[in-house]
Give the backbone structure.
Amino acid sequence: MFNTRWKVFIFLALCYRISHGEELDKKKLQKEAYDMFMHGYNSYMNYAFPADELMPLSCKGRIRGVTPSRGDVDDVLGNFSVTLLDSLDTLVVMNELDEFEKAIDLVIKHVRFDSDHVVSVFETNIRVLGGLISAHVLAELVKEKYPNRLTTYDNQLLKMATEVGNRLLPAFNTTSGLPFSRINLKHGMQDHLKRQKDTCTACGGTMILEFAALTSLTGDPIYEKKARKAMDFLWQQRHRSSDLMGTVLNVHSGDWTRRESGIGAGIDSYYEYTLKAYILLGDESYLDRFNKHYEAIKRYINKGPIFVDVHMHRPTVATRGFMDSLLAFWPGLQVLKGDVKEAIEMHEMLFQVIQKHKFLPEAFTHDFQVHWAEHPIRPEFVESTYFLYRATKDPHYLHVAKQIMDSINKYVKVPCGFAALKDIRTMVKEDQMESFVLSETFKYLYMIFTDPEDLMFDPDHYVLTTEAHFLPLSIGHKEKIENKINPRRMILRADEPQQKNYVCANPIDFTKLPTEREEAQLIRERTKIMLGELRNGASAGGAAPGNMICESPADRIRAWAFSSSNQEHVKQLVMMGIELITLSDGRLHLSHKSVNAASPLYARWGMEFMEEMQHYVEQLDKSGGTPEHTQQFVQILNRPYYGKPYLRGSAAQFGRDIAATKALVGRAAKTIPFRACDKILNADQVVGKIAVVERSDCVFQDKARFVQQAGAIGMVVIDHESNSQYVGDRPTFSMAVDKDGKDDIGIPSIFLFRAEGDHLLRSLKMHSETVISISSHHLSIENTIGRLLRYGKMFKFPEYPQCSLRDGDIILHNLDYPEVILNLRFNGINQDSDPRLHQEIVERHVTELQKYLEFKDADYAFQFYEFFRTAAYGALDLNVENSKLLTVISALSTLKTKPIPPSVFARLPGEITKVRCIPRGEEMPCVRLST
Ligand SMILES: *[C@@H]1O[C@H](CO)[C@@H](O)[C@H](O)[C@H]1NC(C)=O
Ligand SMILES: *[C@@H]1O[C@H](CO)[C@@H](O)[C@H](O)[C@H]1NC(C)=O
């Protein structure tokens, strides 16, 4: 995809950054957020109260049964002044205590819950019940702090909350325990309501926080019991192999009516409440469930910064080509989960959409076109911005929040409040202001600009519900809190890989967060670039991201593996837009046209294949001639270098030739000992990386053998002479072959003179991750970044391609080099063990692998397992013959892998024996790596 457009985009991405030059005045912005809230609140109170909602264009209240009906949307309105109930706790956040007292009086006097209206159980729970409980909790707090305030307050709000809870309870009377989606406030489950069959996952799965709080505050177990039963039932209904949820299901049978699975509308807050139920209640079963779902979402739905809805039962198949705006809450939840880096990435994606359209449209395509153009001033993106700012203290998020606030002021503020947008492209407004604008959007904006110490209460001692209402953590497991056994806080410690570490989530210590600002900036830049690449592909009519990742064809055919008699190979060439003509003298002629390719991805592959083939043919022509000193380049790819300057050096005359594979990219690591004339002591830091060593003390090939043994994928040798430097056009020196040395080196090596080498050493010293490429033509800057991108997540470099199994799994393979890593587990069986035990342990591996590896046909499978057996017996120090490279590669090129469940490792116990197979000539020998 490195076409002209791509280049232009890169240029922009590097030069265009939001200027963070100006220091923002948080106090001023806090005041602005406060003014905005008060404008909305006062407009509602002046023009609409006691109606449920404000109509900001006509400056009056929306009254159900009087104002023309909008259909289901009106199920939010229960003639219970929902906007006021939803806004009460925001008054406390903004320290408007006089108004808070006044508002509570009004609520007690005027609000009733017995109107003859059918309302949404879900909305009534999160806006009304949640609003009342939160206001009650904060009222108690205010009373305690200021004894002359709220003197007549005597749990009235809690009593009202209990009434609402009781009115909702009959909805839970279904076979499954999932609540019906709608109920009549006055008459309960009327017959026609009992005929409702379907409900959404989020609808049934967003009750537990409010209901558990109600149980805790009233002492009546019924509420938590009912909500918990609904959660348990939903968990039961997940797809058992994908762990994903669908969107809509039958309240009685639990059968899925809509099996689309995403993280947005219809599902969103079920996931949110699964994690937050753990945070509030300390019950680990919720955390386990969340972690299962979270893994599944990362595996199937999250494709880089993009989220793709899939079928829950066929999770590799995408169901729709757009994302809806509700999923913008996800980065906030990721912060709570501790996945800050991923949160930064997704937030940046959303911010890109917002910069393009000024607001987040209700839905947008994967290439960021507007799909549904409305924008009701939703809070989700601001909510995520709040959590990211709390977790990172990165001023970037203040700027983001300010930008949102500026747009709201500029485009949606009207004399009587704030009006939703009907179409963000034209900024045409709608006569609507949802209660969440006051209860969430402005609350989060205000809290972003307010230091937690300046709030009346510590927000980290509360769980914020999906409607941004505060539930105190003291609700969960009271006895434990008192014994200080399980101190949970709202924000968990960030970036901890092990779920067990969450059991006692520690108080936040922001100074220790591993996500540094610079890295965060880098993540955002990378996200922008990646999105540019995606957009490019998509606007060329390309494949949806769902098809681009981990979908067949598994991999591009490699030049050296290509055989014109293999029909599969020829077919892929055609897909890539390559025409193949056999000339009369038997030679093949290949020509490539991108427009003939089946998709942009194939077109890119075609280009790469042609380049690779050209190098390959050149190498073949060259071999046999006298070795000349080939110039090569080392480039440091990470920030701030981005490939500049490039360091000239010379290729070694031994080991693998890089020209054929274009470039070797990997992290660099210095070896201990630096001269690498002995076993490498820091093999754990060198494995999978490009080893950086110093010349002298032993021959070059010995160094290469030691670093190869340590698992390095390449080697840079730096001259030990202190003032040597590369001069002239061609290298004057290259690392020669040791006369009687064996040809046993499979990794490529490059020599740098001291002046060039010092550049690299400086970067290694200054940056914890130095990523370099070694190639025979230095890469232009766009190519450099492209290469970083193809390595997927920067700084989490898979040394192996994304679609292979993960480290620690049994097999990892990389067709780019090509190389295979096997992680075998022999459980004490070694060279000296009984031969039958050898056979048994190797076959046990094969048996397990067969369940998770899939080949195109039995021949390929057979070839692969023969190769596997050879490698395994070799690792047990038995004498084996090397496998044939071509056979291994063609088998691997049809390999598809499924994740291997941990249970397999119970059947294959023992320490990992790492085996690495890399090509040498036409063979694929394997060596056991020292660890
Ligand atoms: C709405 O609530 C008010 C105050 O509780 C009540 O007087 C009125 O009858 C209710 N309207 C309907 C349609 O139920
Ligand atoms: C639950 O529903 C059944 C069947 O509709 C009904 O007989 C029963 O009385 C209901 N129970 C409650 C507590 O509403």
User: Anything to note?
Assistant: The pocket of 2-acetamido-2-deoxy-beta-D-glucopyranose (ligand 1) is lined by residues 65, 79, 112, 115-116 (CB under 6 Å).
